[in-house]
Design a protein that fits this description.
By secondary structure, this protein is mostly beta strands. 6% of the residues lie in helices and 35% in strands. The strands form 3 sheets. A 3-stranded antiparallel sheet has the order 3-4-7, with no helix packed on it.
Length: 177
């Protein structure tokens, strides 16, 4: 949805109404399921929409789900989804100075952002704005599980866990330029 900022949703409040928005720190395509009682993992866009988004629980097992849509006209044969986390407050921590030049490898410079992992999606069909949320929405969902460490004493409250997802495909690679 490159014609609008990422905080603008596809849906509007009603006919002839402006599109709805979400807070900049939220995502319509990343949801967390905190343990110990997990929900059924979503595999479709509709199941993803139905999933209750929960706050990450420090010191516990958590799951994160990232919905990926293909906005291009050609099926993406392979999409690698990398998920990172960081304890954040104001300001949000910077990525490592060599993050983009070393991507998809782990950067050598230090950063507060930590990798949760990478999941690969295969054969991601077109699932752009004309079908998003429809019966034929072919968005796919990548799932991640990790144990969130406790909040360090050095961080002042209110610190929260932020997630950053990056999708990379040989047909549409992440580049440094």
């Amino acid at each position: 949805n490159t014609e609008q900022p990422t905080h603008v949703k596809f849906e509007s409040a009603g006919p002839c109404q402006p599109r709805e928005t979400i807070a900049p720190w939220q995502s319509v395509d990343i949801k967390v399921d905190a343990g110990p009682h997990f929900q059924t993992p979503p595999t479709t866009s509709a199941q993803f929409e139905a999933l209750t988004d929960e706050a990450v629980v420090a010191g516990e097992d958590n799951r994160a789900y990232v919905r990926i849509r293909n906005r291009g006209p050609v099926t993406a044969d392979r999409v690698d989804v990398k998920l990172l986390w960081a304890w954040t407050s104001i300001p949000t921590p910077m990525l490592a100075s060599d993050f983009w030049t070393s991507f998809p490898s782990t950067p050598s410079a230090s950063s507060d952002w930590q990798s949760i992992g990478t999941e690969t999606l295969l054969r991601l069909k077109y699932s752009g704005s004309s079908v998003a949320g429809s019966m034929i929405d072919d968005a796919q969902v990548a799932g991640f599980a990790w144990k969130m460490p406790p909040l360090p004493v050095s961080l002042s409250s209110p610190a929260t866990c932020s997630l950053l997802a990056i999708a990379d495909s040989p047909q549409d690679p992440v580049t440094n330029g």
